[in-house]
Amino acid sequence: MNYQIILEQIHSDITPLLGQGKVATYIPALSIADPNDFAMTLHLITGEVFHVGHVQKTFSIQSISKVFMYCMALSLFEDKIQGRVGVEPSGSSFNSLVQLEYENGIPRNPFINPGAIVIADMLVTHFGELADDEILQFFRNSCDDFSITINQEIAASEHDSGFRNLALASLMKSFGNIHNRLEPILDTYFNACSIEANTTQLARSILHLAHNGIDPITSNVLLHPQHVKRINALMLTCGHYDASGEFAYKIGLPAKSGVGGGIIAVVPDVMSIAVYSPALNSHGNSLIGTKALELFAAYTGHSIFSKS
Amino acid sequence: MNYQIILEQIHSDITPLLGQGKVATYIPALSIADPNDFAMTLHLITGEVFHVGHVQKTFSIQSISKVFMYCMALSLFEDKIQGRVGVEPSGSSFNSLVQLEYENGIPRNPFINPGAIVIADMLVTHFGELADDEILQFFRNSCDDFSITINQEIAASEHDSGFRNLALASLMKSFGNIHNRLEPILDTYFNACSIEANTTQLARSILHLAHNGIDPITSNVLLHPQHVKRINALMLTCGHYDASGEFAYKIGLPAKSGVGGGIIAVVPDVMSIAVYSPALNSHGNSLIGTKALELFAAYTGHSIFSKS
Amino acid sequence: MNYQIILEQIHSDITPLLGQGKVATYIPALSIADPNDFAMTLHLITGEVFHVGHVQKTFSIQSISKVFMYCMALSLFEDKIQGRVGVEPSGSSFNSLVQLEYENGIPRNPFINPGAIVIADMLVTHFGELADDEILQFFRNSCDDFSITINQEIAASEHDSGFRNLALASLMKSFGNIHNRLEPILDTYFNACSIEANTTQLARSILHLAHNGIDPITSNVLLHPQHVKRINALMLTCGHYDASGEFAYKIGLPAKSGVGGGIIAVVPDVMSIAVYSPALNSHGNSLIGTKALELFAAYTGHSIFSKS
Amino acid sequence: MNYQIILEQIHSDITPLLGQGKVATYIPALSIADPNDFAMTLHLITGEVFHVGHVQKTFSIQSISKVFMYCMALSLFEDKIQGRVGVEPSGSSFNSLVQLEYENGIPRNPFINPGAIVIADMLVTHFGELADDEILQFFRNSCDDFSITINQEIAASEHDSGFRNLALASLMKSFGNIHNRLEPILDTYFNACSIEANTTQLARSILHLAHNGIDPITSNVLLHPQHVKRINALMLTCGHYDASGEFAYKIGLPAKSGVGGGIIAVVPDVMSIAVYSPALNSHGNSLIGTKALELFAAYTGHSIFSKS
Questions:
Q1: Please, what is the angle between helix D3-14 and helix D287-300, to 10°?
Q2: Domain that holds residue A45
């Protein structure tokens, strides 16, 4: 398959759609993103890399950080996570607090905000207030690139506007499912969201999820094979909030989106993918990024549900 | 891989667990099932079949019928389904009516009761009151076995105790999402649930879902390849009510359970699976059947999320 | 106090508002009501009656019938009601089915639809399928006027469009809180809603609720004094769906509205009131009728919460 | 009516019940209350006072403070409250966060925690961080007793265990319905809850609510007559969480309970009442206190819904 031609076809297909959707505006640093930006990177486990668009453009990874935090937690705590965070899709976004209240402060899964906040709490228990630095190191290590940083301006803005996250954390603490003070947990969480990367770095960072947990370039073992399956399963069932079912239905690949406009995806045993376009659809996922992955699935036939 | 030895190991592993769980009791015909029954069939796309346990024992397929009804609907109506039934996981079971009310009578997906009732309504619009017979023929055709029948006693019992389904149908009708009279729709739905089969027949009936929609034995085209992906995606994200996430997380195969104790599963491009054991876990899925599939995934490494 | 002058002042005050609000349209017979109709009757326990507007105009009493059904049930079944229907405000209308599901099919109070349906079930158990006739007789007796009838056309329309009520009844039956077949219960309920009266008859029918259960004109004992307090308390806390609190806050009198445009109210130990105007506000209560009662409370100072 | 004899009869009636119910345990200072304590005071608008039990025993007024905060707010802000806090019963307690989320951060009424927190926010806007002191002064003034203080130990404990209140405040802030920093608002709220009084002081403090807003002893005007009606209406519809309907139904008097074991009640134009007993029923209201008021209503016939 000629992936470069496919990428260029996708680029050509999505160009007329640029301008649709809305850039996130809840913090200033996100609202200034250029809605015409688009980038897509394919990283094959053979080492080949294919690119199209603004692949050097960095953006905050936002909720994509939840994948890395959960990778760390799976390795560190494994079965201890069970009982504190579930693995079920969350139904619809409107009821995050509702579900949390009915379900006694146990979040549905680690890819919704309250779930990631509990994971942050577990990391703070383990690493202390340097947990955010450990997450950054883990991410740098995953993409074998130590130039990556946290955008402190974005982290500060997230913190200032983060009253819903404070509400979620407080509610869970009232149920006993948060063990540390709220401040360092939320700092860790907001800092992880504010890691900046481009699609080249992001695709590289999850290459091991397409290769049983082993980075095929460095041969470093980053994750247990059993954990790789679980991360991929969670990305499929819970990776796109209340559009996860539709993503699985139309695209059929494990993937995770962030409100910064990035999406990562995995074709198991074949490649990792990262796509970027900051304008969002009504579910809070990159509109063009989702479309690009839909086209990718159609053109290549790659799907975990069947050969095309 | 020696599948026969694996099946026998699974049988041996689950034997001490027989007696756990609870047989469904809401209708008499289900409550008399023997909790010690267990059967498992693997049907490879090469034609090889492996069995263990009471593989001639028939049981009502219950919610597994939702898969066949949706296969028919996808072929017949395709995009017209959109707008009347979604493709998202439903969150938790407790709120079936809640979600339906908030979401204006549009069910989350076709594998929960209200979703299947809308599909039944579409089939009644298309086939008239013979819709149930058409579903039976479709199922017979899928397993290439025309001896299969509907258990009328079970269908009648389902009908008599089906006030929650009547509530769901009435609510959707009040929202305009049911077009026919309630009686023939519910008859169709209850009759489809009351189709009886054994694991041999069930595994055979979904073999095409492991083979791009083509029955590898007869070479009949039963489903469009694109629809196969969608059915498999839906089984993965929505096949086990509010335990769908856990099933994907632990087992990693598209599958659908029924309250009669059956579960069907697909290893894309490799095989179809049917397992039977009537005692249920707290989510209403076969307790032993789920365990058997977990062992199968562990022993074979089969998963859509990675090679083991 | 010169009540006639007060009524005329109210009439003059509300005239500019005629045309606001919306007549109920869910059944044809209601949708043809004239939004300019207005009538108000005060019936003092001394026997004096004051009128303004179209006081001979009849309309279907709709949910006002729930008061009479509950009066009958209190006398007949008393403490047996407890456990099947509560006495708490229902929160907001949006969640009628939600609450019913969470609360295991026990309706919040007898003045919301599911509550009245359970009361209808109890009356059907007691009176058989003639329960609707018994309700009509009770109402006729309460207003000492035997010319009152049920509008069969409205009853039939209610029945044909009553799928939400069927959903509520089915759900409660699935929880075991409905004992009879659904058909006669819903017939009873819809027939009671379709009783027609004018404001003169309505005010007369509840005069005993302002007089410890005794009709001051005929001296007939219609209700136990303890039950009068309870009916009045329920009207205050639950009489106007999710605007009950605001009605108590602004008007301070026990009252019950119907979607046909009528409202009844009680000034304990002083008088009964009926008002009619068919255009409804967003809560489903008569917009002009509510306004008229607000003006009445302001002009007279009558309130159960304090002398003015 | 011989109120002293009635009080003694009530005391005798409730004595066998002492020991039922459970003292609040969420903070240490509350958990040490003696479940055998009981006190009841009637304060007539004529100036006569009747007592029974431990009437010198002080306790934290807890949610009863919400009445005083709302009295202040009505006088200071009047119509500006509308739009930020409603006047509807809240349905059931289980869904405080649920309702708040659906209703965009606008609490149902000022007598549930989120409603009182918004009122505290308004008072902080008006008075700055001395708002708690102003509330204390208002309360002291209402009972004409300047010895009353805030129990700082209780206030500190409330603060330390108040994560659910922090969750409520954060959620409302995320909706823009909290204007100040969370810290001073919650301090104000917890300090008001921690005011200590005995039944003599409490009955005295609300005497004006039985007398059109005028303290009949000092002739001080404490509240506008229109506001008195509204406070009494709110106490009736919203004074006892999800047992408000039952309280209105059985007792028929405006009243407000606190988790410290106190209840205040008003017989409009006749008297004010305070009762104390710290063991709570399942709704969080004083079990013996509720029973005492039920007996009071039965023995005296006092009700806002009818003469007995």
A1: 140
A2: 3-60+198-300
